[in-house]
Design a protein that fits this description.
There is one protein chain. The chain is an alpha/beta fold and 371 residues long. It folds into 2 domains: 40-247, L-asparaginase, N-terminal domain (Rossmann fold, 3-Layer(aba) Sandwich); 261-370, Rossmann fold. Helix content is 30%, strand content 19%. It has 10 helices and 16 strands. The strands form 4 sheets. The protein has an 8-stranded mixed beta sheet, sandwiched between helices. A hairpin with a 1-residue loop joins strand 11 (228-231) and strand 12 (233-236). The protein starts with a helix and ends with a helix. It binds glutamic acid.
């Protein structure tokens, strides 16, 4: 009887040993952590990634698990966001800091400056290898582009958000945050400017935009394409040709305030009076979201030309969502500038920063051609 049991006991013991071996994570066995473009870091030598939380849906909560549009954004703090994804500890040393906890439609110039200054301060230190910013998706691209122009470091800066609140079935926040940390920890992410990570895609802050009110694949980069993807590993496929981070003229270290720049939308039967109203309210610049190739009705143009004569900078962008707005002689002679391929909300960000350097229309246009 005993003799017949022996092989069975040996077999079970062997199975148990294999099972114990398999249950250890690769990191626990000190195997290198790999990203496909060649990066590799050991568990004991993981990068330090700081998560700066600002609110949004990724920090949103509701009593109902099925509610994806009715919830309170900015309800959950950075510690809870980190605790929800303990797997991040396998790829980075993660720590958090709460900058604000707001809906991103309430993000203002003062908070933008505060955030960018903090990012620069952290990245100057050897203790921080990369930064992830959690943010509401509504104005995420504006903050990301502002950072793209004002961060003075090559270290990765990744902005992430989510479309479903943390309490929802199928919440996309945890995987977006995990992926954002993975990208921030990847050496290949260095020197690429501010990046936007949602829905397994990596977008450049210069090109990516929110395209859908509720869908999880809302961030698209239709004309230029994503610059990378995350499929367990991080893959970069594209390069950024526009000036960013260390190569820009903008240094916000001593800046207390940004000049007021407003956006005016073009439509049939519009009037020039909105330009007067913006000027009266203190605007130093106006972005016009024109139809087509930044076209303007005669009445809107009258208002814009008057504003230029009064010293305001006017930049024509487009409400179409894609394509470049070209200078065109008709507008150049009146010093009405062209946004190139920047959408209105990003053209506003660049114009605010450009106006801290110059009010000369020619120099302003150069920024739109190069950035
Ligand atoms: N409107 C909110 C915000 O932008 C929620 C949208 C979101 O984060 O997806 O913060």
């Amino acid at each position: 009887m005993k003799k017949r049991l022996m092989p069975i006991v040996t077999f079970i013991t062997a199975l148990l040993l294999i099972a114990v071996g398999c249950s250890q994570s690769p990191q626990a066995k000190e195997a290198p952590h790999q990203t496909k473009n060649g990066s590799s870091s050991k568990k004991g030598n993981l990068p330090n990634i700081k998560i700066l939380a600002t609110g949004g849906t990724i920090a949103g909560a509701d009593k109902s698990k099925t509610s994806t549009t009715e919830y309170k954004a900015g309800a959950v703090g950075v510690d809870s966001l980190i605790q929800a994804v303990p797997e991040m500890e396998d790829i980075a040393h993660v720590s958090g800091e709460q900058i604000v906890n707001i809906d991103s439609q309430n993000m203002d110039n003062k908070t933008l400056l505060k955030l960018a200054k903090r990012v620069n301060e952290l990245l100057r230190s050897d203790d921080t290898d990369g930064i992830v910013i959690t943010h509401g998706t509504d104005t995420l691209e504006e903050t990301a582009y502002f950072l793209n122009l004002t961060v003075k470091s090559e270290k990765p800066v990744v902005v992430a958000g989510s479309m479903r609140p943390s309490t929802a079935i199928g919440a996309d926040g945890p995987s977006n945050l995990y992926n954002a940390v993975k990208v921030a920890a990847a050496p290949e992410a260095k020197g690429k400017g501010a990046l936007v990570v949602l829905n397994d895609r990596i977008g450049s802050a210069r090109y990516v935009t929110k395209t859908n009110t509720t869908a999880t694949d809302t961030f698209k980069s239709e004309e230029m394409g994503y610059i990378g993807t995350i499929a367990d590993d991080v893959y970069f496929n594209n390069i950024i040709t526009r000036k960013h981070t260390k190569d820009t003229d903008f240094n916000i270290a001593k800046l207390k305030k940004l000049p007021q720049v407003d956006i005016i939308y073009g439509y049939q039967n519009d009037g020039g009076y909105l330009f007067d109203a913006a000027a009266k309210a203190g605007a130093k610049g106006i972005v016009f979201a024109g139809a087509g190739n930044g076209s303007m009705s005669d009445t809107a143009k009258k208002g814009a030309v008057k504003a230029v004569k009064n010293g305001l900078a006017i930049v024509r962008s487009t409400r179409t969502g894609n394509g470049a707005v070209t200078p065109n002689r008709e507008f150049e002679k009146d010093r009405l500038l062209a946004s190139n391929s920047l959408n209105p909300q990003k053209a506003r960000i660049l114009l605010m920063l450009a106006l801290t350097k110059t009010d000369d229309p020619e120099r302003l246009q150069t920024y739109f051609n190069e950035y």
